[in-house]
Amino acid sequence: MEDVLDVYARPHDPAVPVVHMDEKPYQLLAHAREPIPAAPGRDRKEDSEYVRHGTCSIFVWAQPLAGRRRVVARRQRTRIDRAHEVAHLLTLDYPDAAKVVLVMDNLNTHTLGSLYEAFEPTKARAPAQRLEIHTRPNTGPGSTPLKSNSLP
Asked: Is residue 100 within 8 Å of 131, Cβ to Cβ?
């Protein structure tokens, strides 16, 4: 955990952005009955019953020192999905950064190997070389998922 705290203590450097990545599964829900709209003197009314429409995975990319955040919903959380998100991070979000410092959980999908599974070796090597990866522990202090009100 000290390693991650040291990373977060670094001064803001636009040339070497420090980005935190987190993800979580999310239920897709719909109303069982249409809500009754609000009217003058009356709040909107919603029934607590819902209809489940499956799940998705929410990927959050945050650069707190620059005030940037990108959120993406995908059908699933696979190594290939993550690899495409990392490629987006490096080619579209930070195309001019020589290096991106990436802080993330130590999950089975969070490896450089996912880039090689998703892309040809020559295409996977370039982004892999631009990443400086720091993982935070999966258990213990500081291991709670990223929340909008808990950005470092």
From this structure: yes
Q: Which residue has the tokens 């990223």?
A: 146
SS3 of residue 5 by DSSP:
helix
- Rounded to 10 degrees, the C-alpha dihedral 95/101/104/107 comes to 80
Contacts of 65 (CB under 8 A, 6+ apart): 12, 18
Q: Encoding tokens for residue 5?
A: 């705290």
The C-alpha atoms of residue 121 and residue 123 are separated, in whole angstroms, by 5
- Geometric angle at alpha carbon 121, from 115 and 124, rounded to 5°: 35
Q: What is the pLDDT of residues 13-69, one digit of tens each?
A: 999 999 999 888 999 999 999 999 999 999 999 999 999 999 999 999 999 899 999
Question: For the whole model, what pTM was predicted?
Answer: 0.73
DSSP percent split of the chain into helix, strand, coil, nearest 5: 25, 35, 40
